[in-house]
Amino acid sequence: MRSAEASGASVTGFGAGRGQAASRRPVSVVDTASVSRPFRISLSPITLAVALTSLLAATLFVAYDAARTFDDARRDLSIIGAVLASEISGMSAEAASEAIGASGQRFGAIAQASLVTSPAASGDELTVPAGPHGMLSLESAQASHWTGIGQRGAAAFGLAGLIVLLVARRRRDDMPDMVQRDNYRTLAAAIPMGVACWSKSGKLIVCNEQYRSRLDLNSFSMSYQDAVKRLTIGGYIKLVNEDDGNKVLELHREDGSCLLIDERPLGDGALMTLISDVTEAKKTDTMLHAIRQEQRLLARRYHEEKLKAEAASRSKTNFLAHLSHDIRTPLNHIIGFAELMRHQTYGPLGDARYSDYVQSIKTSGEHLLASFATILDLAELESGQKALRSEPVAIDELLDGVIQRFRAQASRAGIVFVLGEASGAVVRGDRLGLSRMVSNIVENALRFTPAGGKVALNAFPARDGVVVEITDTGLGMSEERLASLSQPFALGDSTFTREGVGPGLGISIARAIAELSGGNLAIDSSPSLGTTVAISLPLPVANALQAA
């Protein structure tokens, strides 16, 4: 388990590599921005609004205080004037003058009092009727009023400045204003994963419910480092990607869960942390990785087995070639000597039965020679050692030659052998190989069709090829028998075991020739209904384009 300190977590984020970068920074370089930062006040819209509001409130307070102070002073002068006027109304002129002169000591609000003959023209003076003495003029002490207004105004502006400083100080503490916090809160609530926003000093600004449930938080009073320690309990952190201030990390826990931590800067040193659970995704990736590894292993094994099979096929071909040569040579001698004995070249054999024996020896030898030749041909075709020529072959002429070859055999067996309409198709291939391909299928059809049956040979031209079909009304085959036809030397059950059947390679050789010619061979059969063999052969490119 790795602790938060070991993983590089701090109030500035998961600082993988930050410590090393900081240690490499030259100490002689002076960061003027960091030096001047304590003397700067960043005025956000909220801070500016608070400052203007405080100054306006202080100004309005001073104006109101001045108006109220002078209004109160005028009202006091009016009351004092009424009192003095009533007192001096019954006095003589000398006594009235003495009373007015002493009024400044009696009433501190009066700066000067005198008797006048006309009302005061200035707003700072107040005149009241004084009976037989005329008009009493009173002037307030404005200096004291202005002093009080100035003191109260200074206090108001000082309070406003204090409020501005407190707001600015809150900004310097990296905490956003209320509008920004509300924006962060709205953003966090809209994101469907754990989201937390941190100030530069590591204080939690806002987080959503998913983040709270992930850390099991009951309050918002948590620092960034405490949150990291909670996350990394019983696990370790792995750095996945780091680019332009963005960091992507994986947190692997002891319970097998995996959290993806994405850190993104928000400006002014703030930080946003996104947490999502990628446990299932990691399990899927692990499973896909295991599958890919298994696929690579299987592909390697397949390649190895393929090489072994190709080597075995080459060995088989070489073995059959040597075996055919070793057997065909003595068989040719046996057939030759049997032919000499059958003609009694050097004298009579004696007993008449010897002639039948010699004929059987010759016939069996010729059958064995043909069988070995067929086996060798199939081996060479399958291994690609026997190259086929490429020449124009008219399908109609090819099928007509097959009809002429097997017509007498079909007539002796009592089988109707017919040829369909001309197709006019011309393909490129080996004439002898294609003729052998069709002949093998026709020979099988005639062999397994009883007397009174029918064998039809047809060719159907298409836009890009031609299909040759050999259809018979013979014994047919079951699905199991059809499946075994893909394997050479498959003779089937005893129903198909007849004299002179051979090694059962006719269909295998026909299929090999069709595939080497670029075509395909398909068989459809049902017991007691018959069999249809379809051979598709491609047309040359020029003919196909002309047909299109």
From TrEMBL:
<keyword id="KW-0808">Transferase</keyword>
<keyword id="KW-1133">Transmembrane helix</keyword>
<dbReference type="GO" id="GO:0009927">
    <property type="term" value="F:histidine phosphotransfer kinase activity"/>
</dbReference>
<dbReference type="GO" id="GO:0005886">
    <property type="term" value="C:plasma membrane"/>
</dbReference>
<dbReference type="GO" id="GO:0000155">
    <property type="term" value="F:phosphorelay sensor kinase activity"/>
</dbReference>
<dbReference type="InterPro" id="IPR004358">
    <property type="entry name" value="Sig_transdc_His_kin-like_C"/>
</dbReference>
<dbReference type="Pfam" id="PF02518">
    <property type="entry name" value="HATPase_c"/>
</dbReference>
<keyword id="KW-0472">Membrane</keyword>
<dbReference type="InterPro" id="IPR036890">
    <property type="entry name" value="HATPase_C_sf"/>
</dbReference>
<dbReference type="Pfam" id="PF00512">
    <property type="entry name" value="HisKA"/>
</dbReference>
<feature type="domain" description="Histidine kinase">
    <location>
        <begin position="322"/>
        <end position="541"/>
    </location>
</feature>
<keyword id="KW-0812">Transmembrane</keyword>
<feature type="transmembrane region" description="Helical">
    <location>
        <begin position="46"/>
        <end position="64"/>
    </location>
</feature>
<keyword id="KW-0418">Kinase</keyword>
<dbReference type="InterPro" id="IPR003661">
    <property type="entry name" value="HisK_dim/P_dom"/>
</dbReference>
<keyword id="KW-0597">Phosphoprotein</keyword>
<dbReference type="InterPro" id="IPR005467">
    <property type="entry name" value="His_kinase_dom"/>
</dbReference>
<dbReference type="InterPro" id="IPR003594">
    <property type="entry name" value="HATPase_dom"/>
</dbReference>
<protein>
    <recommendedName>
        <fullName>histidine kinase</fullName>
        <ecNumber>2.7.13.3</ecNumber>
    </recommendedName>
</protein>
<dbReference type="InterPro" id="IPR036097">
    <property type="entry name" value="HisK_dim/P_sf"/>
</dbReference>
